[in-house]
């Protein structure tokens, strides 16, 4: 049961595309998804919203544009099946245009419980992107 499990945010990889400036103050999420991971080029690996039993980590990947430097984004992870808040994780966007993501990871030897999940990306109180996935 997730209520008794310790959940960790293993990593947050937020990088920028070269040649960007910081002139605009609004951020627009242009693409986002749930994946098994994020590769070295900050692209999603195995994009899916359905994970097999035994899954121990899930990544939320997104691409943005028009961000002001150090724009703070909040990722809120939630286990919908039992209505359990997992973790809030905030991070700063370093460039105007870029891509990256955050990974939810269980401690070694533990797996995510079966059920429905969601992760919402927020800018302040403004919901930028809602995403959902299931573990079979």
Alpha-beta classification? mainly beta
Tell me how many strands there are: 10
Largest beta-sheet details: 5 strands, antiparallel
Strand % is: over 45%
Average residue-wise pLDDT: 85
Assembly type of the chains comes to single chain
At the first level of CATH, the class is Mainly Beta
Count of all domains: 1
- Could you spell the SSE succession in H and E letters? EEEEEEEEEE
Gyration radius, rounded = 15 Å
The coarse silhouette is globular
CATH architecture: Sandwich
Strand order of the largest sheet: 1-8-5-2-3
Poorly predicted parts: 3-10, 15-25
Compute the separation of the termini in Å.
14 Å
Write a structural description.
The structure is a single chain. With about 140 residues, this protein is mostly beta strands. It has a single domain, classed as Immunoglobulin-like. The protein has no helices and ten strands. The chain has strands at about 10-15, 30-40, 45, 50, 55-65, 70-80, 85-95, 100-105, 115-125, 125-135. The strands form two sheets. A five-stranded antiparallel β-sheet has the order 1-8-5-2-3, with no helix packed on it. The chain is globular and about 40 Å long. The two termini are about 15 Å apart.
Quick summary:
The chain is mainly β and 136 residues long. Helix content is 0%, strand content 60%.
Features:
136 residues; mainly beta; Immunoglobulin-like; five-stranded antiparallel β-sheet; five-stranded mixed β-sheet; disordered N terminus
């Amino acid at each position: 049961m997730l209520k008794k499990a310790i959940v960790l945010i293993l990593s947050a990889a937020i990088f920028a595309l070269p040649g960007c400036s910081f002139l605009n103050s609004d951020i627009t999420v242009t693409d986002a998804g749930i994946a098994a991971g994020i590769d070295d080029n900050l692209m999603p690996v195995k994009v899916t919203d359905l994970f097999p039993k035994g899954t121990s980590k899930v990544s939320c990947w997104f691409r943005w544009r028009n961000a002001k430097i150090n724009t703070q984004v909040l990722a809120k992870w939630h286990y919908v099946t039992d209505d359990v808040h997992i973790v809030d994780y905030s991070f700063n966007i370093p460039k105007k245009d870029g891509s990256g993501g955050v990974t939810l990871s269980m401690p070694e030897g533990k797996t995510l419980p079966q059920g429905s999940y969601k992760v919402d990306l927020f800018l302040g109180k403004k919901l930028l992107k809602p995403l959902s996935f299931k573990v079979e």
